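TASK: fixed-backbone design
INPUT:
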C-alpha cells in the first residue's frame, strides 16, 4: 500500500476535525461520514442511534468482519448560567478541565446561534488571584467567559444560551512538514480517516474481499455504549480502529501502529490479536503490542451487548490522549498496512 493513502487519511481527518461533534451532538459529523463513504461508492446509512453503517462488500456473509471507529469526541454542556454571566460546565465523556483551561470554545444554542468564549479558571488573573497556582482545576473551579457584553444570567439568556447547550473545544489541528498530526480529538477522528483511506484503497485496487466487511462509525463511544448495537447479521469478528496508547511503560510510538492485547476491560481475543500480529509481519508494518491500563473501546461494548463475536483493537499511536494529542502519518500508514494484511488484499 502506497504511503499516499496515509496522507489521504490525514487530510480527511483534518477536515473531519473541523466539525464539532462531542458525544450526543454528532448529527453533522454522521452526515459527513455517510457522504464521504457514499462518494467512494459504498452503501452507507445513518442508524437510529445516529451512527453510520457502511457495507464494503465481499463474500461469505456467514463470517463477516465489522470494523469500528467513532465520530464522537470529548466536550461539555452548560450546567449553570451564573449570576455573573459566566457558564459552569459539565463534561461530556472524559473531558478534563485542566486540559481545556484557556482553550477557545463554541457554544451551540438550540435556536442555531453559535457564540464564542474561553474556558478560564475562576478569577483567572495571576496579578489578582494569589491562589492561582494552588487551585485544583475542575469544572467547578473553571468557567466559560463568553465573548459578548454580558454581566448577568439575564444577559446570557437574552442571547438564547440555556442550560443543556453544547460547548465545543477548539481542536487546533496541525499537520507538520515532518508528518506529525497534532489536534484535540484525534481520538477517534484520525481512525475515521484511516477507514476512509482503506475503503478508497479497496476501490482503487479493485480488491476482491474474501469475506463480507462492514464499518460502523459510532457516536457514543466516549460514554461507553457506542458499539452496543447495529451489528449486521453474520458478523463473527469485530475490530475497533481507535487510538493506540503512547506513554510510560508502553512500547508504541506515534510512528507505529499499536495492537492492544489487554485494556481495563480485560484481554482481547487471543486469536484476533495473533492474526493482527501476523498481518503486520506480512505487510512489514512497524507495530507494537501493548497493554493499556486505563482504556475501553467500542468493541467491548459490542461484546457487553451480548454479541457472540471475537474482538480486537488497533490504531495509530497517539500521545497525550484526551488532551492536545499527537500522532504521525507513519503511524497511520502502518495501521492501514495491518488492515490490508488482515483483509488479505
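OUTPUT:
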Amino acid at each position: 500500500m502506497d504511503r499516499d493513502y496515509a496522507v489521504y487519511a490525514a487530510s480527511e481527518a483534518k477536515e473531519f476535525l473541523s466539525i464539532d461533534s462531542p458525544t450526543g451532538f454528532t448529527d453533522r459529523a454522521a452526515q459527513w461520514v455517510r457522504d464521504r463513504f457514499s462518494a467512494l461508492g459504498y452503501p452507507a446509512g445513518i442508524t437510529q442511534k445516529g451512527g453510520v453503517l457502511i457495507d464494503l462488500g465481499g463474500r461469505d456473509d456467514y463470517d463477516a468482519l465489522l470494523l469500528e471507529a467513532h465520530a464522537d469526541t470529548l466536550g461539555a454542556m452548560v450546567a449553570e448560567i451564573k449570576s455573573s454571566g459566566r457558564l459552569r460546565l459539565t463534561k461530556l465523556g472524559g473531558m478534563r478541565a485542566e486540559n481545556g483551561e484557556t482553550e477557545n470554545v463554541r457554544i451551540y444554542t438550540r435556536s442555531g446561534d453559535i457564540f464564542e468564549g474561553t474556558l478560564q479558571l475562576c478569577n483567572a488573573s495571576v496579578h489578582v488571584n494569589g491562589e492561582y497556582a494552588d487551585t485544583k482545576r475542575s469544572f467547578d473551579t473553571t468557567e466559560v467567559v463568553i465573548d459578548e457584553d454580558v454581566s448577568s444570567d439575564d444577559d446570557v439568556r437574552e442571547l438564547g444560551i440555556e442550560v443543556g447547550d453544547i460547548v465545543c473545544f477548539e481542536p487546533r489541528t496541525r499537520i507538520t512538514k515532518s508528518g506529525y498530526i497534532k489536534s484535540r480529538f484525534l481520538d477517534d477522528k484520525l481512525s475515521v480517516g484511516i477507514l476512509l483511506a482503506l475503503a478508497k484503497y479497496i476501490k482503487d485496487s479493485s480488491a476482491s474481499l474474501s469475506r463480507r466487511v462492514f464499518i460502523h462509525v459510532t457516536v457514543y463511544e466516549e460514554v461507553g455504549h457506542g458499539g452496543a448495537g447495529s451489528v449486521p447479521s453474520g458478523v463473527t469478528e469485530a475490530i475497533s480502529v481507535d487510538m493506540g496508547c503512547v506513554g510510560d511503560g508502553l512500547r508504541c510510538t506515534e510512528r507505529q501502529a499499536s495492537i492492544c492485547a489487554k485494556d481495563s476491560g480485560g484481554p482481547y481475543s487471543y486469536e484476533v490479536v495473533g492474526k493482527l500480529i501476523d498481518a503486520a509481519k506480512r505487510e512489514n508494518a512497524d507495530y507494537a503490542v501493548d497493554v493499556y491500563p486505563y482504556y475501553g473501546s467500542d468493541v467491548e461494548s459490542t461484546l457487553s451487548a451480548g454479541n457472540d463475536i471475537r474482538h480486537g483493537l488497533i490504531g495509530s499511536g497517539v500521545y497525550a490522549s484526551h488532551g492536545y494529542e499527537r500522532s504521525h502519518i507513519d503511524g497511520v500508514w502502518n495501521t492501514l498496512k495491518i488492515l490490508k494484511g488482515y483483509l488479505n488484499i
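COMMENT: Helices lie at 4-17, 27-39, 97-100, 153-159, 186-204, 270-282, 298-304, 329-343.
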